[in-house]
Amino acid sequence: MLSHELALVEQAKTWKFLELWVDPVLFPPKVLMLISDQDGTCKIFSPGADYKLVVAHPSYETAREWLLEDEYERVQGQLLAEEVL
Fold first, then answer.
1. Residues 6+ apart with CB under 8 A from 52
2. How many Cα atoms occupy the beta-carbon half-sphere of 45 within 13 Å?
3. Containing domain of residue 71, as a range?
4. Number of domains into which the chain is organized
5. Is residue 67 part of a domain?
6. Which of 29, 30, 33, 65 has its CA 20 to 30 A from that of 48?
7. What is the pLDDT of residues 24-58, one digit of tens each?
8. Does residue 24 fall inside a structural domain?
9. Residue 48 and residue 76: Cα distance in Å, rounded?
10. Is 84 contained in some domain?
11. Radius of gyration (Cα) for the chain, nearest Å?
12. Structural domain contains residue 10
């Protein structure tokens, strides 16, 4: 297994929720995935680039501000780990 894949496996054990964010200006829209860990840190991944880590933030608020600054819009709702696992 590649080290990138191992990191995603480990991330899957500690996540609290995830959100999808889109850049509606582009077509097709660019999609990013925000994943919040149990400790409150947030990582943003690009599903279109093999789930590459784009940026990490110490809190949801800073991650949200980063996405809004780049004019991304959140897709309604969150996927909670407790509902999936």
1. 4, 45, 46
2. 15
3. 3-77
4. 1
5. yes
6. 65
7. 887 888 999 999 999 999 999 999 999 999 999 99
8. yes
9. 20
10. no
11. 13
12. yes
> Which pair of structure tokens corresponds to residue 17?
């929720």
User: Which of 11, 19, 5 shows the shortest CA–CA distance to 50?
Assistant: 5
Look at the pTM and tell me if it is higher than 0.70.
yes
Tokens at 65, concatenated? 């501000």
Q: How far is CA 42 from CA 27, 36, 52, 77, 83, in A?
A: 26, 4, 14, 16, 19
Whether 57 and 45 have beta carbons less than 8 Å apart is answered as: no
Separation between Cα atoms, residue 53 and residue 84, nearest integer Å? 22
